[in-house]
Amino acid sequence: MVEKRKNILFFGILIFILILFPFVVTNYWIRLFTGIFMYGTLAQATNILMGFSGLVPFGNVVFFGIGAYFTGITMLNLGFPFFIALVFGASACFVFAFVVGHPVLKLKGHYFAIATMGISEAIKQISTNVKITRGGMGLNLPLVPFEVNTSYLFFYFLMFSAMILVTLVALWISRNRVGYALRAIMSNEDGAKSIGINTPHYKVLAWAISAFFTGLGGGIFAYWYGYIDPPSVFDIGISVRFIIMILLGGAGTIIGPLLGAFFIELLSETVWSQFLFIHLGVLGAIIVLVVIFMPRGFVWFYRQKFSLEALLENVRKGKL
Amino acid sequence: MLILQVLINGFLIGGLYGCVAVGFSLVWGVSNIINLSHGIFIMLGAYITFWLFTLFHIDPFLTVPISAAILFSVGYLVQKCLLNYVVGYTQQSGFGVFLSLILTFGLARVFENLMVGIWSGDWRSVTTSYSGLSLHLAGVSIPYIRIAVFGVALLSAGLLSVFLYRSRAGMAIRAITFNTVGAQIVGIELDRVYNITYAIGAALAGIAGSLVSLIYTFSPFLSTPYLSWAFVIVVMGGLGSIYGAIVGGILLGIIESIATAYVGPGYQQAIGFIILVLLLVFRPQGLFGKKFLK
Amino acid sequence: MGALLSIKNVSKYFGGLAANKAISFDIEAGEIIGLIGPNGSGKTTLINVITGNDVADQGSIRFKGHEIVRLKPYIINRLGIARTYQVVQPFIGMSVRENVVAGVLFGRDGKGRKMGVAWERADEVLELCHMQDKRNEMVENLTIADIKRLEIAKAMATDPDLLLLDEGMAGLNPKEIDEALDLATRINKMGMTLLVVEHVMKAVMSISQRVVVLHQGRLMAIGTPEAIAKDEQVIKAYLGEKYSLRQKNRGEVKRL
User: Of A60, A128, B33, B238, whose CB is crowded by the most CB atoms within 10 A?
Assistant: First the structure.
């Protein structure tokens, strides 16, 4: 109980700090953190599928793009106000994942990963050719109706809220039956079926939820940047990036993906913006190191270290 | 007549597609590494041919072995210094399998940017004195270059086949495909075999790249289509199967040729990927047998 | 009142091989019925066919009057059939208690259950299986005997009417076998119907009221343990032609 109270207090303070933060720093930092929150949202969204069930949706960026485009198109062509367009876009992603998920989630391991990649690339090319997306020319979204400083704050808090929301959903799932079903499926799909788990249903549900929040991130991104085109919003590099964040921080944990997002985005921005070409190569190298030294990510590593310490304590005290 | 032209175009280019896929299929089938750098290796091969032709006026077809040799070395180094650390994980289940995807993806971006830095992103192509000549037969025109490309592609596949089935190294490679533990028991050093396999895969990419330079415009940023063809063909033709890669390549070539003629050129890749997904879902055993499900 | 499970003329082919051929027998509610047979006789296949992991090519299986042949495994579980696996299938990365709660959440009546109720029910099952002291242990730290007991607990958590135990005694020492038999008997006394697949003869023969013998995919004999032990054909199937002749000549019959 004390443990739980300590955690809530800690996160409460953290959130409080993050809320005050944008009022005391320059726009540069606000933008940086907005980007961190975006990746935090994306990483956590995909963590819902990947962390609990072990399936890696390499092509999940497709929902980022679909969310971005649906938001943009409904605002431009149908005059939807932003928030409606945003929810519409995210819901479109949910539906798409739900429909496509049933056949595609029958695939195992890296074949599922490749299929999602294929879907993303196909949608990317189709978007480049279809008129409604303005094709390769890109889409310009309506301008944000605020003046500059306000809009920085607006998107900061919007992304922050999205990240908190998806994290709460992930937390809720990890504690309820959906979380158990997914973990059982990851551990042993046949065993899961034998105790009454409708495995396709849960896999599809998890993917659809991750799609919704990825699309949410995409929609906010579209309005934030004001301009989107297929190569930038359907970029597999984005998927790879947030998957690395999940692995780094600890798949299946709740703070792990957020830590991963924070770390990688900060590092990218402050150190590597000079070294474009080694950027992703170094990312790859980090993964090798992480896998060798912290195979399950930082959070698990941290927890193990502490339980090892506890173990040693007990030995010392003569309890063992 | 149009349909015959379309079919022949597709058939011939399909040989090249097969050549593109064969190296990718080999590495995946043997080492369980999904080499997302395969596309950029092809580009590298194309550049090698381009510069040898442009600077030293060496006939492109003669540069093929040089391209293969250079890419062989590059591949060998990549596997030895980088991928071998990750191979242990790729053989397991769990997230380890994706390391090869992430690593090779990152590596591809590194190569891509290096190449842009050195050679710029300008679109290149190789045009020889005989590039425009065609054979005219039965109302269709068949560029000689395409026939030659088809021939070289098939020749490479054939050489690979001979190597795999008639040489000791080839046998070692085939042995670990079936049973890594069993192979090690008879003294086959896994690491060395992985090195050679990846190197061969890269060399084949180099050969494909040299051929690509004669037919397509290329640049470091245009590597994705080749990867997508490789994926589709591997699924169609079966993992690790040379025969499957060639036949799958020809089939894909014909399908894309028909699609381009009757639907429009922009959707080429999309069609390829859609076929990929449909195949994975509805016919996971490919056209020749190897299953992608449990 | 009909039988609890009624298997009629069930056949299952793998390629050209008939793993199960025209098998028919009934399981009555409340009984313990053993399923024995030499390796490869089709016992596990039959279990898989009953639970829906494989689909019978011919025949019908009726559970409480419903035809279950083409139903999915999770639906069959919710109707009231649970099983353990020969190669144990615990959910690693979760504790003993969490493994059992998974069964409670998804088995029969699982849908409506709230987490709090589910945890309580899980504890009840653990208590029944004498595992409550190990409930927070991670599955990776358990002994093989405990993992097998956990398998049974997980299956029980889904609240079945019929429990299929697939070679749960393999790899256990005599003391552990006795504990497992004790658990099986206790569950049965509570009203659970059991189908026990076993190679450990002493175990299955001592606990079963009836025994079914499979041989090369067919049902060879069915009867009480005593009758089966004396059955000439059964002896021949297990121990070979020579042995059964030798027995005949000796004039004695060995209990298996």
Answer: A60
Burial of C64 (0-12, 13-18, 19+ CB in 10 A): middle
Is A129 in contact with B266 (Cβ distance < 8 A)? Answer: yes
- Between the alpha carbon of residue C234 and those of residues A241, B289, C211, C221, C237, the distances in Å are 63, 41, 11, 7, 5
Among chain B residues, CA nearest to A246: B95
Domains and CATH numbers, chain C: 5-223 (3.40.50.300), 224-256 (no CATH)
Q: Where are the alpha helices (DSSP H) in A146-275?
A: 148-175, 177-187, 189-194, 199-225, 230-233, 236-249, 256-271
A 79-138 residues with CB below 8 A of B?
A: 103-104, 106-111, 113-115, 117-119, 121-123, 125-126, 128-129
Domain spans of chain B? 2-282
| Yes or no, beta carbons of A121 and B284 under 8 Å apart | no
Query: What's the sign of the alpha-carbon dihedral A49, A53, A58, A59?
Result: negative
Does residue C146 sit in helix, strand or coil? helix
| More confident site: A38 or C256 | A38
pLDDT number for residue C253 = 42
Domain that holds residue A159: 2-317
Residue C31 · residue C75 · CB < 8 Å: no
Enter the tokens of residue B261. Answer: 């003629």
3-state secondary structure string across chain B: CHHHHHHHHHHHHHHHHHHHHHHHHHHHHHHCCCCCCHHHHHHHHHHHHHHHHHHHCCCHHHHHHHHHHHHHHHHHHHHHHHHHHHHHHHHCCHHHHHHHHHHHHHHHHHHHHHHHHHHCCCCECCCCCCCCCEEEECCEEEEHHHHHHHHHHHHHHHHHHHHHHHCHHHHHHHHHHHCHHHHHHCCCCHHHHHHHHHHHHHHHHHHHHHHHHHHCCECHHHCHHHHHHHHHHHHHHCCCCHHHHHHHHHHHHHHHHHHHHHCCHHHHHHHHHHHHHHHHHHCCCCCCCCCCCC
Strand bridging mode C162-166 / C193-197: parallel
The alpha carbon of B21 is separated from its chain's Cα centroid by a whole number of angstroms, namely 4
Cross-sheet strand order for the sheet of C5-14: C17-27, C5-14, C58-63, C66-67
Low-confidence ranges of chain A (pLDDT < 70): 1-3, 270-296, 304-320
Q: The CATH number of the domain where A242 resides is what?
A: 1.10.3470
Residue with more model confidence, B292 or B77: B77
Q: How far apart are CA A260 and CA A238, in angstroms?
A: 14
- Report phi then psi at C90, rounded to 5: -75, 160
Give pLDDT, residue B74: 94
Nearest to B101 by CA among A63, A236, A120, A296: A236
pLDDT at A319: 44
Domain B2-282 fold is ABC transporter involved in vitamin B12 uptake, BtuC (1.10.3470)
Whether C74 sits inside 8 A of A198 (CB atoms) is yes
Confidence (pLDDT) at C256: 37
CB-CB neighbors (< 8 A) of A291 in chain B: 86, 89, 96, 99
Model pLDDT, residue A281: 61
Q: Which of B31, B83, B84, B109 to mutate to test the interface with A (most CBs of A within 10 A)?
A: B109
CA B169/CA B164 separation, integer angstroms: 7
Shortest distance between the Cα of A188 and any Cα of chain C, in A, equals 6
pLDDT score for B276: 81
- Measured between beta carbons, the chain C residues lying within 8 angstroms of A187 are 90-94
As to burial, measured by CB atoms within 10 angstroms (0-12 exposed, 13-18 middle, 19+ buried), residue A317 is: exposed
Domain count for chain A: 1
pLDDT at C208 over 80: yes
